[in-house]
Amino acid sequence: MVGKFKRLLIGRPMKSAEIEGEKLNKLKALAVLSSDALSSVAYGTEQILIVLMAAGFTALWYSVPISLGVLGLLLILILSYRQTIFAYPTGGGAYIVAKNNLGVHTGLLAGGSLLVDYILTVAVSSSAGTDAITSAFPSLHDHRVLISLTMILFLTIMNLRGITESASVLALPVYLFVVSIFVLIISGVVKYFTGGVHAAVPEMSTTVSNISLFLILKAFSSGCSALTGVEAVSNAIPNFKKPAERNAAATLVMMGTILGAMFIGISLLAYWYGIAPSEKETVVSQIANATFGRGFIYYFIQGVTALILFLAANTAYSAFPLLAFMLAKDKFMPRMFMVRGDRLGFSNGIINLGVLSALLVIVFNGDTENLIPLYALGVFIPFTLSQLGMMVRWIKLKPSGWLGRFIVNTIGMLTTLTISLIFVFTKFSQIWMVFFFLPFVIFIFIQTKRHYENTADQLRIDLARDKPLIKGNTIVVPIAGITQVVKQSLGYAKSVTDNVVAVYVGFNDEEIERMEKKWEEWDPGVRLIVLRSSYRSIIRPLIKFVDTVEWKTAETDHITVLIPQFITKHWWQHILHNQTSLLLRAYLFNRKDVVIATVPYHLNK
Amino acid sequence: MVGKFKRLLIGRPMKSAEIEGEKLNKLKALAVLSSDALSSVAYGTEQILIVLMAAGFTALWYSVPISLGVLGLLLILILSYRQTIFAYPTGGGAYIVAKNNLGVHTGLLAGGSLLVDYILTVAVSSSAGTDAITSAFPSLHDHRVLISLTMILFLTIMNLRGITESASVLALPVYLFVVSIFVLIISGVVKYFTGGVHAAVPEMSTTVSNISLFLILKAFSSGCSALTGVEAVSNAIPNFKKPAERNAAATLVMMGTILGAMFIGISLLAYWYGIAPSEKETVVSQIANATFGRGFIYYFIQGVTALILFLAANTAYSAFPLLAFMLAKDKFMPRMFMVRGDRLGFSNGIINLGVLSALLVIVFNGDTENLIPLYALGVFIPFTLSQLGMMVRWIKLKPSGWLGRFIVNTIGMLTTLTISLIFVFTKFSQIWMVFFFLPFVIFIFIQTKRHYENTADQLRIDLARDKPLIKGNTIVVPIAGITQVVKQSLGYAKSVTDNVVAVYVGFNDEEIERMEKKWEEWDPGVRLIVLRSSYRSIIRPLIKFVDTVEWKTAETDHITVLIPQFITKHWWQHILHNQTSLLLRAYLFNRKDVVIATVPYHLNK
């Protein structure tokens, strides 16, 4: 039943060799990996305007130079990451680059930030997408958490089905979004230059008395939230069709170009149309409204905007499992993240990401706006470390033309470092927890690795000297009566050794006497030991008895506790029987060095 | 840790022989068993007045004759049940009496009604008690569910501690309630006859035009809710100190006398004071207010009233586990209800009652008033069946003077049957579900018994002919590598038999080749079989291999699958390792007739 349901949801299992067919070409990769970056257009400009609004309407013209600054930053990042892709064709995520060039702990810092960040991506994007929907249809407002969770569930199932199929589903909305935004920008620009706009516009270069450097920096760092998601491509190189690095680099440049054009277009239109940020309506919605009015095109743009925000969450579904796989391969995360599921995706990573982000949505009741700065900082820490790593790499390897590349990465590193510091100084109240949970995550990574290493040490064998050891056998069979199950268990025990002893725990004298008499009558050729329990516990006297046997024979014999057990035909019938044997097994298993064996007796009605 | 916490909550374990010290004397029994019945005074009169109010204030005088009718009914019930106690000194609950005299299915009908009813008692009483508190302190109104659940938790823990101790805690409030109500009645009567009351009183015997027989019957049946709980004593005879039946009968008569006096006292005062039912204030509160004013005595009466409603729930904690024990002894309920816990109470019954009633409170959000008619009907069905059973018994046994007793039980039976029918006709909308869930409960009882009987049939042994069967041994050891755990497991296997085979599942050719080479180098004296898995599943190829071994050797050999397993030092380290062995064990356990053995290897760091 469960198996069939699983098949229906995620499809037939696939052979390991089928993996090449699941790889991405450039256009599909653009759809799968760029939705996070591209969707930032939906809120990047707005984030800048919200901060500037604190200094009044006339300060809004600063959004144009700030947007140009963000555009410049984007250019630097794209150039810098392009170098990384070619240097690390097998996957150049911040974790790998930082670990290889700056040491394991720095790598873990980058990896930990990214891992947490991917969870935030899913939570923030799905909530933001839900907000977009509920802004358009206020009656859905009470169901925000449910809508977000539904989307997360949908994305999780899609990704469990496999990469290619989800790409097919997800490609269309991404392209529609890109086309819609370009149509909006072009129409808006045409309308502006044909004089169709009559709005009050803050004059460029006006000196605004109460604007401070702090405010401008804060607005700039807010605008940088438009750059989240740029790193997705370099993390996902192994998912590309061959030649993976060329395809990845081309995808990165395509994505950067589209993102840059859309971002500066929206920012310019927002300035020309004199748009101020509003709690009730997004900036993109205001521009669309001013350009087309509230007709079909307006609703279409709003719709694809909501959709791409959901899809942004999907980027994390590609990136999180891959990063978890790399960390697990280095033993910093549980081994289960290395297992490919039936459909060749890293199912455990996908499921963990879905569950954790769903928890965030539930805990924050769908209001994850306050997580945005944390989310942006979580991206810029690995940005910085990754580029620092590349700098170290150029100095170490010094390939031909290394100096130019070194300079590109240095500029990139200094820029992202500066932005990270701006985040810390201007938005400390929203990001302070990063200083607690990042060390905690790194601590867990290190403990995990230590555990795996300890385990390996203890399990390691000297092939030349460590050989299996042959000993005698003593078997203890706890029994509750004389039944078919007991007969079967004793038969097995006697087939193994002659040192078999049956143990019975009685609660009062009559019970014990009756048992002894019946045993004598049966005469199975096995000695019966009877224990008396005043406290109505079966397990405690049995454990004590096993202790005694261990003390007497452990040196010469393997001690086996053989538990007779019948298995009911239907699982629910199980609750009708006392679970003493399960408890006994669990106790012995965790505390004692005895072999635990079960002879199952299957009931057939 | 868990163990220590348990000790703190419920006290040290007690020996089976300590049980006599836990038995109840008459006064303690009155406290433990009568709170349900006595607390009915808090709402019995009010239930009558609410129904009569539908015909107007002038109709309220009917409450006096109706109360007298209920009093008569109480007398009949007490006499009838007194006979039951002497006839069934080992516990004469409706289940036993009906089963013995009317057949098993009728007994199950009575037992099922009572079982469900005890759960309703806890839910209704704890909610009603909470309502009393929140009426006095409206600020607590938002926390009603929490207060009810806290009370249920408290009662559950008290009862897990054991009968005597909870009796000590519970005796005082019951006596305080009885004393308070009598003080209220006496003061009220004195005030009335000294002319201190000046209220409009509906004149006795006025003909009220719009009153119907239906309404009077409905009011009467509502008043009968004051009789719930009367059966508790006859169910709990085994809990009494010896001579149990005399003590139980005396307790029953005491309880009946107190209940009758309080009920008629409150009804008369309500009439004399001209009190009309109000949504905001209970009838008892109105009488107390009219008699004493809102002073200390008033609040004291309100307080003990709330308290006794909580304690009413406690009656069910004595009755439910005992009835569940009796049903389990007859194999109609799971065996676990027969196990006495550390403190000699039937812990499973107590815990199940607590959980189920807590669920009812949560599902109904603390508004369980609508369950009251259901609850009353659930009492009158077993009342009727029990007395019908007694009638059959007198006819069968015909002891000296049986005719008088027969007549008493017949009158009792006819009365309660009539009331049950009145319930069905006047309150069908609130009790219809009883016709669905009672058959369902009885169906479950019968299925449970059938399962136990089937199991016993299949496990039964012929002592003379069924002897343990000695066969050969074949051991299959699934391995994932060459480690200390594998060495230990192979050592054990070789100690048992020479037919040992190790099985390795590889995912690709390199893996398999490496393993085969290493095995050759180690040379443990055991043959290695290598399986190849295209779908990355370890379990499926292993199961197929076991199938093959079974097919070849099951006739001559016991087949053992020996699973090497290391146990981490701390339980949480477990999640760092793949759980393949657990899955394999679970699968084999449920599907295959092979012995499953585990050689635990305990890691020490």
TrEMBL record, chains A, B:
It holds the Pfam family AA_permease_2. The chain crosses the membrane at residues 60-81, 102-125, 145-163, 170-193, 213-237, 249-276, 296-328, 349-366, 372-394, 406-425, 431-448. GO terms for cellular component: membrane. InterPro entries: AA/rel_permease1, APC_K+_Transporter. One of its GO terms (molecular function) is transmembrane transporter activity. It is a multi-pass membrane protein. Its main location: membrane. It is found in: Membrane. Gene3D superfamilies: Amino acid/polyamine transporter I. Keywords: Membrane, Transmembrane, Transmembrane helix. This is APC family permease.
